[in-house]
Amino acid sequence: MPKKKSLPEIVAHVAQALPALGASSGQIRNQVLLGLAELLERSQKEILEANQADVKEAKKNKLAEALIDRLALSEARMTQLVAGLRETAALPDPLGAIEDFKTLPSGLMVGRLRIPLGLIAFICEARPGAVAEAAAMALKSGNAIIVKPGKEVLKTAQVLSPLFAEALESAGLPGQAATVLPDLSHEGLKELLSLSDRLDLVIPRGGENLIRFVDEHSKVPVLKHFKGVCHLYVDEGADHQMALDLTVNAKVNRPGTCNALECLLVHRQEAPKFLPLVGAALVAQGVKIASSAESMPYLPGATKAKPDDFGREFLGPKLAVKTVDNLDEALAHIRQYGSRHTEAIVTKDQKRALTFLKNVDAGCVLVNASTRLNDGGCLGLGAEIGISTTKLHAYGPMGLKELTTTKFVVSGDGHLRN
Amino acid sequence: MPKKKSLPEIVAHVAQALPALGASSGQIRNQVLLGLAELLERSQKEILEANQADVKEAKKNKLAEALIDRLALSEARMTQLVAGLRETAALPDPLGAIEDFKTLPSGLMVGRLRIPLGLIAFICEARPGAVAEAAAMALKSGNAIIVKPGKEVLKTAQVLSPLFAEALESAGLPGQAATVLPDLSHEGLKELLSLSDRLDLVIPRGGENLIRFVDEHSKVPVLKHFKGVCHLYVDEGADHQMALDLTVNAKVNRPGTCNALECLLVHRQEAPKFLPLVGAALVAQGVKIASSAESMPYLPGATKAKPDDFGREFLGPKLAVKTVDNLDEALAHIRQYGSRHTEAIVTKDQKRALTFLKNVDAGCVLVNASTRLNDGGCLGLGAEIGISTTKLHAYGPMGLKELTTTKFVVSGDGHLRN
User: Fold this and answer.
1) In this structure, are A209 and A270 located in the same domain?
2) Is residue B244 part of a domain?
């Protein structure tokens, strides 16, 4: 029986796939994604069975509802996943273009060649779909990927793993270019995160604890968001029906996600009429309200907000509500409690809309649109591998372009430095 | 007497300048740079005196020649520095443009607004000019900057510091937006690097030890290169005169810099004629040669290279030379010993030039041009704050654009997520 490979050996083995990936055409890389889509369809029964075992285990371990919602696959979600892979395959090749090309006065020709980042480690918790999507996006953009699935999703991920290899090999590429690791201990994960000579990027997807752990121990650059504490500010003179629809959609469409609404800020002027309206609609949807003292009279059934209800990611059917004097107070609240993730305003006033867009420091700032739309698909990126709340490299949703970089390519005729 | 501020207090104070900087027009920010240029001219005598004291101290402490070369200002370098600030002021405003704007089929309007990164910490060793250039580039791009100068350059930096404040205040901006710290102990530097809630980016500039220290201890994203181990490959059939000129320029133009040549790779076919030519020219320039066994017969006066002469940054008048069988061997050598900084080929063959450009993994890859040209100014960026050898956010020389990021701005008409 062959000796079990060490983690650095596995990572080195995956890295060996990089030259072949880098040299491959966009067509070949698309073939991998289309092959994977077909394999997922063909193996749907097996995948759903493994996933049901994961869900059963999660329920036994009393995981939060929101986590189980993230974990569970269904035939409908599988169909969506497969369609997503085909859409990603159909997107333009993110590699090979020369950008900002110019001939300088010296005659030197300079451009930036779009290239893959290299080897990406994707560390996730409960999202089995994200494992396949991340692998597809990494491969489409010429990167190799190592997936470290959470134990919650281990059985599902283990069924996916050989499908990656099969899709790659069918296209003539090294099967190890997308490798799923077994469940790692904390020490194993730390070892993975220390391999800065091999890994070019780490993307963690999951709860705040996982992400803080990765961020704290990684010697490799990390793109991440800790949490999404998203606000909607209902401006003076805003359309109440639009504000109501946006609030309900942002809160209840899928409360376990990072772009779900956590705090509603309402201009004092609008509170007496708008709050009873939105309060009733939210209660009807089973949402609990934690209200600031001043909003309480307009929100029957609300409980008084504790200080830590602001700046909190409820990950479930609960919403903090606060009345503010004006846009400035809303901006100050968001500056203090926001998480640089997603912030929105509903307003009819063009000037205040622009002030909000300009002054709010977040990866995605929206006017008259649901916070739930901060998603690579909804914003036209075609696909998304995560949302970044740090400003380096990517800020906001990350698509294929964010999995690439450029190098300077220069051509001269014996040019020297003076 | 007021209590001395703690490091977090100083950093928080600098961060308070961010909203005013973010809201300022490009014209106002240019005014800061032009004011600073004028103040540098007016204070030239004082600056040069402080610098001479730094140089005297450095000589007393027996710093390496290359470091003293980096440290020393002269009237000529001051003139160059001031001209550089005015050129930077004249560059287009890197902020405020909306990129990739599109109206999606849903009617949602999406764009990416170019914004500053925020608060940058610039940690440097021996370059006084770089302190002024970094401050100018940070302010031009709407960022605040904290400079931690090395003790080698402390006296010079302390003369520059009040000039930054004066230039900012004259333009109506907060004077603390560019703050020079006093010399910090290692513990103090570690404390600075831990302030990830306040700092958005750390840029270290200096020797490999400094950069490794910063990289190891920083909780803030770091853009850096450890060292520049730059190669020039002389291809089969290359023009010998061009190859000679490029080699000599890349090695002797300024050997203490990161884009200076450290290793010459010569195709076996060209070795018998080219090596004696280049050997004589280098010896005439006082360059010592560490040669592979096979090149030795063609390089009178060369010493035999030790294994660690390859992959080494000499930072002085020494060059490693090696004969290779073909382009593949050159590529393999660069893969093993290069530092992802600057790599060059001299060739007449278009196909091999493209193979080299495509396959070499470095921030800047050049054909028929000196490695010394890997510099923001020479490559048309207008100004440079450093060179990155990591692929995240920036790869290669970093100009004004690399000190900015984008956020998604979205405008809808009550758009919801399905």
Assistant:
1) no
2) yes
CB contact under 8 A, A378 and B405: no
Q: How far apart are CA A279 and CA A267, in angstroms?
A: 15
* Cα–Cα distance for residue pair B89/B97, rounded to 1 Å: 18
Q: Which residues contact B175 (CB under 8 A, 6 or more apart)?
A: B164, B165, B166, B168, B169
Tell me the residue ranges of DSSP E strands in B71-229.
98-103, 109-116, 119-124, 144-148, 178-180, 201-205
Q: How far apart are CA B387 and CA B203, in angstroms?
A: 10
Is B380 a domain residue?
A: no
Q: Does residue A210 sit in the same domain as residue A288?
A: no
One domain for residues B114 and B189: yes
A276 within 8 A of A243, measured Cβ to Cβ: no
C-alpha distance from residue A338 to each of A229, A361, A389 (Å): 6, 9, 11
Judging by DSSP bridges, how do beta strands B230-234 and A386-388 pair with one another? unpaired
CB neighbours of A216 closer than 8 A, spacing ≥ 6?
A: none
Contact B376, B369 (CB under 8 A): no
B357 lies within 8 A of chain A by CB: yes
Asked if A338 is an interface residue toward chain B (Cβ–Cβ < 8 A), one would say no
Which stretches of B83-177 are assigned E, i.e. beta strand?
98-103, 109-116, 119-124, 144-148
Quickly tell me which residue has 């622009």 as its tokens: A354
B353 contacts in chain A (CB < 8 Å): 411
Whether the per-residue pLDDT at B31 is higher than 50: the answer is yes
At residue B1, does pLDDT exceed 50? no
Q: What pLDDT band is residue B206 in, cutting at 50, 70 and 90?
A: confident
Instruction: Give the separation between CA A106 and CA A365, rounded to whole angstroms.
Output: 42
Same domain, B61 and B119: yes
Residues A49 and A147 reside in one and the same domain: yes
Facing A379 at nearest CB: one of B110, B221, B393: B110
Say how far apart CA A386 and CA A127 lie, in whole Å: 12
Q: Are B341 and B362 in contact (CB under 8 A)?
A: yes
Q: A6 by DSSP, 3-state: which?
A: coil
Q: Between residues A67 and B292, which one has the greater pLDDT?
A: B292
**CA gap A298, B321 in Å, rounded:** 81
* Any domain includes A70: yes
Domain with B279, as residue range(s), is 230-373
Mean pLDDT of B190-196: 95
Nearest to A405 among B353, B395, B414 (CB): B395
Identify the CATH number of the domain in which residue A234 sits.
3.40.309.10
ipTM over 0.90: yes
What is the total count of domains within chain A? 2
- The Cα of B61 is separated from the nearest Cα of chain A by a number of Å equal to 31
Under 8 Å between Cβ of B71 and B119: no
How far is Cα A337 from Cα A326, in angstroms, rounded to an integer?
Answer: 17
Structural domain includes residue B415? no
Give the model confidence (pLDDT) of B72-115 as tens digits. Answer: 999 999 999 999 999 999 999 999 999 999 999 999 999 999 99
- To probe the interface with B, which of A25, A202, A407 has the most B CB atoms within 10 Å? A407
Identify which of B397, B409, B416 has the shortest CB distance to residue A246. Answer: B416
Q: What is the mean pLDDT of each run of 10 residues along chain A (418 residues)?
A: 81 94 95 98 96 95 85 94 95 95 96 97 89 96 96 92 97 97 91 94 90 92 91 98 98 93 98 98 97 96 96 95 98 95 98 96 97 94 90 95 97 97
Rounded-to-integer distance, Cα A329 and Cα A338, Å: 13
- Clarify whether residues B219 and B236 are in a common domain: no
Co-location of A141 and A264 in the same domain: no
Phi/psi for B410 (5° steps) reads -135, 135
Q: Is B97 on the interface with A (CB under 8 A)?
A: no
Same structural domain for residues A218 and A345? no
pTM of the prediction?
Answer: 0.92
Residue B61, phi then psi, degrees to nearest 5: -85, 10
